Amino acid sequence: MKTKKITKERLKTELVWYSFIILSLVTLLVLTYLPMLTSVKYSFYDVSVLGYGETFSGFKNYSLILQNPAFHRSVGNTVVLALMSLLSIPMGFVLASLINGLGKGKTQSFFRVGYYLPNIVTGVSVILVFQVVLKSNEGLLNNVLSTFTTQPVSIGWLSDSNFAKFGATIISVWGNLGYAMLINLANLQSIPSEIYEAAEVDGATPIKAWIHITIPQMVPCFSFLLITNIIGGLARFTDLFILGGNTSAGRPGGTLQTILMFIYQFSFETPQYGIASAGAMILFAITLAITMVNLKLTGFFKKDER
Amino acid sequence: MKMKKVRKGITIFFLVILLAVILIPLYWAVVLSFDRAATTTLPPFSLTPKEFSLFNYEYAFKTIPLVRLYINTIIVTVTNTFISVFTAMMCGYAFAKGKFALKKVWFLFMLAVMMIPFESRMVPLFIQYRNWGLLDTWAPLIFGSFAYVYGTFFAKQNIETIPDSLRESAFLDGAGEWTIFLRIIIPLSKPLIATLSILQVLSNWNNYLWPLVTIKSTEKQLISVGVAMFNAQQDNIYYGPRMAVAVISAIPLTIMFLILQKNIVQSIAVSGIKQ
Amino acid sequence: MKLAKRMMAVLLSLSLTLSLAACGDSAPKESSSGTSEKEASANVSEVANDEEPITLKLVGPGLFTTVGETGSMDLVTGLERPGYQVVVERWNELHPNVKLEIETSPWDNWKAVLQTAALSNDVDVLLHGSSITAIAEPIGKWLDEDPSLDGKFSMLAMRRTEENGGDFSKYIPYGLTITANPLLMVLDKEIFNNYGVTLPDGNWSLEDVRKVAESTTGIDPVTGKQTYGISMLGAGSANKNYIWVSRAMDVPAIDFGPTLKETKVNYNTPETAAVFDYINSLYPFSSPDYLEGLDMETSATADSNLAMFITESSYDVYNKLQAGDLLDRFMFLPLPNIEKGENAGNTSSHMGDWNMAVCNTSENKEMAWEFIKFMATDPVVQEWLVESNNIPNYLDGLSYLEEAMEPAYYTAIEQVLKQQPLEFSASTNVYYDSGNFGTLANDLTTVINEIFVGNMTSQQAAEFVQKNADDFMKGLQ
């Protein structure tokens, strides 16, 4: 009698908790996992346009894509671009430190808003402006560089395949700096002030305190930004798609083709849905691996049920 | 003391210069949107429009049904934001404070989704909605927001920092988990809700490919697609009008951010990003 | 607590419905894809009966998007163009029971739009869908039934396919071209005069182009301004420059067999390298802004600094010239002559197009064909095409163009349209193919740009293109 009541109560609490998550779980199951299973399936099929004939082909799509130099290049591009865009983290940190040093008040929130603005305004129009800012002949950036170096600079930041990754990085850092600054700032402000007071008593200069106290305290914040930036970088698509003239070829010279653009290219532009699906699976595996490492580092697996 | 003031002055000076550099592209875009001379020829960079006029804006309003697109986008965005933030809070609460079977499994189940690129499951998803007969409705745009994974993760981290004692005392008063959630957790999480809302509004507002393929009728279409349609209606790149449309579509976001920005910092500060 | 319970109930039932709907529908999804779908739609009444009300759905990018329903106004020229309601009204006069539903889309992601539209089973006419053969219905059967259309078009939307036992080496028409966009050279006569360079005529060679481009690059002796000899098609679509040059030099690279697998692709030849070399030899005479596509800003204006530029949208250029009162200063020429082969002596200008295709998931294919035929031939539509600044592909429609344009300009356009062999498609031919060989088109664009900036030699470029083509051919099942 008693045990029965306990299980009943147990069941009731289980149901209550499940009522909180069931909606999201079902949504994910139906709208994410189900379509993804279709992609898994088609990664083993020879299919050009989905819905128009398919034949089973085993692992052929995978072996093709793994041998495809264009795919290798897109993986390389994605990784390099993701790493380059990490520049926004140290820049955001320095910026946040400076802004934090101003003390709370109107000035601080002015800068907070100002630096975050680029994050809000994205899309085609920004790219259009950047195409002019970064053009090789008399572009705004090259003009500035010419003035500083006192010799004519004409780098095709977005048109020369040797420099396009730098141009693309300028655009992404420009867009993400505000976010990195904001996260850094919030974390800086949550460092207990007692630590600094103790250091001041010990006679540490602000610079020393910054190096020996602030930076170590911020490591978790950096690693958070690092992981989210890398995962975001792996899925980079829109800005480079627009830069390439609304194609996924990754112009110039294919140096800006990311994995996702490769997948898009084979989904729609030169439809071979089987290959696109295999590419998507590989991208999924890469991202999942990185996330698992992240979870492991943050101790997710060790933590006990509370 | 004086030393400190000088240092602060230098810092502010440096920050202002850097901010100016960063905002130049944006500022220039706004200037161009007011410049009648900015058509196919881009006037050289200047701080003021060469030929000030509201023509570009008038032209934009005349060419595409901006008001309609605006209303649609606001309805969809607000609905989505409400649903997704609320469900994310629900899940976040369950994962932070709940005790139930398979909790970790489900959490991983949700996290793994963050890694599936939308473009790669778009066509199968499209076919599903076709089979449900829901194409050309807002359903495909809205249903997905019943699961907001990043928000769940974020909410879990935040809610974990709320002391258990609050829950326990409410529990003793006979309150159920839902009451606790609605009466205690939600009111305590205002900064978090503001942050998640901003992130959601941003991503909804700029969502382009999915509405482009699922919504066919112009009267149901969203502003992101409207902007692309506007750009497609000229044979050339007309810089001025393009910038005007871009400015128009970014105004609500900017205003919202200005209102809510304080909360973002707060919620990030209290959240367990630091683990 | 009550509120919470009620909410829970609502949410739970919502999620239940969602999941039920998912399960209920995932099964028939499998069977509805693939061939069964096509068979099913083929059985639907073949008769296009005007008596019963039908709705035709049109989806896609292009002219309808540009002009909109009620028309549009150009910002520079101030020219107003009538909207597609003209077409709808005319169609409703002829077919009062067939309603048109037009859903326009931008060019961005247009292939994704058309593919998903076809998958939605709710589209009859694809606006510019012929290049995706999987979703477009071949129109050969209708063309055969209608001999009155013979020889009336300057081009047809031709593709290759090996589906359903088709012979890959043969062209199959997949759509009717509504408007044609011939490639034309626009010449600034004033710059030619200033340099004392004799104006070429329509009967010119690749070498002539290079020579005049070279001698019009530099500081204009009269105005003292920097001028550039030529602006080829934008670097972003450098592959199109490959089409006309390889065609002019007659350097075939693809030997089509009865199936894709039996087709031989060979770009790694000295002849292909020579095509790259020629394109590269024009590059020094273009503006430093050419690579970014920003060199056209002053083109066809009084401040023009380009002696020649190639355009795909000649009517827009014409309007711009007319608005600037510059028609006397500029002229059009077809691209240089083809040097050898069966078309030797004809212009190497090819044509882009805006076509319409019948979607193969349509339930009203006969009526859809009626509509695209109407678009391609109806006199009111032809007049509207010209009024909205387009070049009709229907040869009888050219008379409207002749009335609308200065004779000198019209002649150049007419020459390209009339010299175009019907059996030539700019998207799939022995020189170039944009649809059947994976990333070939993108690869050509890539290597040409790499040659321009000096990162590749023409030899390496030919090898690169061939390598990717080989990989693609190897992957065929």
Describe this structure in words.
The complex is a heterotrimer of chains A (306), B (275) and C (477). By secondary structure, chain A is mainly α. Helix content of chain A is 72%, strand content 1%. Chain A has 13 helices and two strands; from the N terminus they run αββαααααααααααα. Chain A has a two-stranded antiparallel sheet with strand order 1-2. In chain A, α1 (2-42) packs across α13 and α12 packs antiparallel against α13. The model of chain A has no long low-confidence stretch (mean pLDDT 85). With 275 residues, chain B is mainly alpha-helical. Chain B is built from 13 helices and no strands. In chain B, α3 (66-97) packs across α7 (149-160) and α10 (190-206) runs antiparallel to α13. Chain B has a single domain (57-274), classed as Orthogonal Bundle (MetI-like fold), CATH 1.10.3720.10. Chain C has 477 residues and is an alpha+beta fold. Chain C folds into two domains: 49-180 and 353-418, Periplasmic binding protein-like II (D-Maltodextrin-Binding Protein, domain 2); 184-350 and 428-474, D-Maltodextrin-Binding Protein, domain 2 (3-Layer(aba) Sandwich). Chain C is 41% helix and 15% strand. In chain C, the strands form four sheets. Chain C has a six-stranded mixed beta sheet, with helices on both faces. In chain C, α9 packs across α16 and α13 packs parallel to α14 (398-404). Chains in contact: A-B, A-C, B-C. At the A-B interface, α1, α4, α5, α6 and α8 of A face α1, α3, α4, α5 and α9 of B.
Number of domains of chain B: 1
Q: Spell out the CATH superfamily of the largest domain in chain C.
A: Periplasmic binding protein-like II
What is the correct CATH architecture of the largest domain in chain C? 3-Layer(aba) Sandwich
Beta-strand residue fraction of chain B: under 5%
Q: Roughly what fraction of the amino acids of chain C lie in strands?
A: 5-15%
- Radius of gyration of chain B (Å): 23 Å
Between the first and last Cα atoms of chain B, what is the distance in angstroms? 37 Å
Query: Helicity of chain B, in percent?
Result: over 70%
In round numbers, the mean pLDDT of chain C is 86
Care to count the β-strands of chain C?
Answer: 15
Strand elements of chain B, count: 0
Span between termini of chain C: 62 Å
Low-pLDDT windows of residues of chain C: 1-5, 7-50
